[in-house]
Backbone:
């Protein structure tokens, strides 16, 4: 699984740790790390590093001559990431805004931004600042769900669609951001190397609730007028009885900052 349908969960270390530990979470994290092509001596920035769950793995790949810098705007996340990585050499964690990174110009070889763009106030500004801090020929690996692709099976297709519409337009700041990542990278001056889609599937109702927060989000959708209370009650009852099928698409983009002319 990946991501979350309520931005408030960005401040919940337990939630992020739990999400990262799922089979799907481990799979796309591995794909993103492999796409970064990390080598000894690289300086890496993990923007929106959250609890720092991936910092040690990246540090092991860049070695003693490299460095890994975690950046997160949330002081709770920064504290957890610092605690997690305190015994690992080569890692530093800083509090900072993705729109104005606490990093020098042209100082970073690799940048990773995972499940962050969906929450940002100004994604183009954040991409522009990533471009600023990257060295020429550096790689930027960015991934986010596209919540407009969220599907939940039920005989009442209209309510399932209304739920997705609420998630995309209200529950997540930049709901359809996944499909936009390649364009944002290109507009910021990057050369897009690849675009990958990763399907995220849920077939267990309890697990789907734990990660997607369906009951809570449905309640919000009712209060916002997207779904009637009667339709929501019937819909949730059927989802509980099962079988349960839900899925969405995670997009990963690998982009390169152009090299300096020879």
Residues:
């Amino acid at each position: 699984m990946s991501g979350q349908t309520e931005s408030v969960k960005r401040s919940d270390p337990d939630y992020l740790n739990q999400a990262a530990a799922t089979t799907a979470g481990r799979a796309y994290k591995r794909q993103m790390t492999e796409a970064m092509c990390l080598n000894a001596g690289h300086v890496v920035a993990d923007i929106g590093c959250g609890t720092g769950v991936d910092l040690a793995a990246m540090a092991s790949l860049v070695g003693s001559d490299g460095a890994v810098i975690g950046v997160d705007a949330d002081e709770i996340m920064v504290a957890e990431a610092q605690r997690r990585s305190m015994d690992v050499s080569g890692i530093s964690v800083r509090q900072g805004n993705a729109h104005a990174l606490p990093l020098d110009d042209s100082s970073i070889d690799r940048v990773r931004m995972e499940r962050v763009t969906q929450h940002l106030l100004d994604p183009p500004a954040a991409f522009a600042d990533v471009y600023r801090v990257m060295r020429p020929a550096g790689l930027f690996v960015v991934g986010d769900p596209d919540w407009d692709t969220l599907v939940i099976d039920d005989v009442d297709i209209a309510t399932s669609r209304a739920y997705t519409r609420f998630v995309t337009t209200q529950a997540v700041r930049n709901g359809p951001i996944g499909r936009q990542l390649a364009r944002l990278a290109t507009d910021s001056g990057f050369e897009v190397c690849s675009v990958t889609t990763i399907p995220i599937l849920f077939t267990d109702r309890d697990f789907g609730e734990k990660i997607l927060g369906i009951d809570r989000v449905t309640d919000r959708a009712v209060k916002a007028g997207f779904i009637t209370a009667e339709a929501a009650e019937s819909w949730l009852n059927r989802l509980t009885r099962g079988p349960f099928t839900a899925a969405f698409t995670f997009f990963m983009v690998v982009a390169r900052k152009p090299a300096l002319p020879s």
Remarks:
- The chain is about 40% helix and 25% strand.
- Confidence is low (pLDDT under 50) at residues 1-10.
